[in-house]
Write a structure and sequence with these properties.
5 strands; single chain; alpha/beta
């Protein structure tokens, strides 16, 4: 871990590195995040823009719009908030999303 941090001056970047170390040792990861950036751009991307050794450990993603499962075929909708549509969520998500046959509306 010291080698990974030796080139980095920025403390925030070090925190990301430490988080990736913890995540890579987990068997299952549940991610909680906002679905889009402040500008409305997708945060769920086709390709990552940084190394993510724990990516294979992600099983479920909770966003402010939906609950998604990471399955071998891709990313699948499991739950959706009633104020948004499947079409809208797909429009702010880069990868093509699969819709679960038992998609549920999330209650507040």
């Amino acid at each position: 871990m010291e080698e990974a941090r030796s080139d980095i001056e920025d403390g925030a970047t070090v925190a990301i590195g430490v988080s990736m170390d913890f995540a890579s040792s987990a068997r299952r990861l549940l991610i909680a995040m906002e679905h889009t950036t402040r500008d409305g751009m997708p945060k769920l991307l086709r390709e990552l823009t940084y190394p993510a050794p724990a990516c294979k450990n992600v099983h479920k993603i909770f966003t402010d719009m939906a609950v998604l499962d990471v399955v071998p075929e891709g990313i699948m909708f499991r739950g959706i908030y009633p104020v948004v549509s499947v079409e809208y969520i797909q429009s702010v998500t880069e990868p093509e999303l699969l819709v679960s046959p038992d998609l549920k509306e999330i209650e507040f």
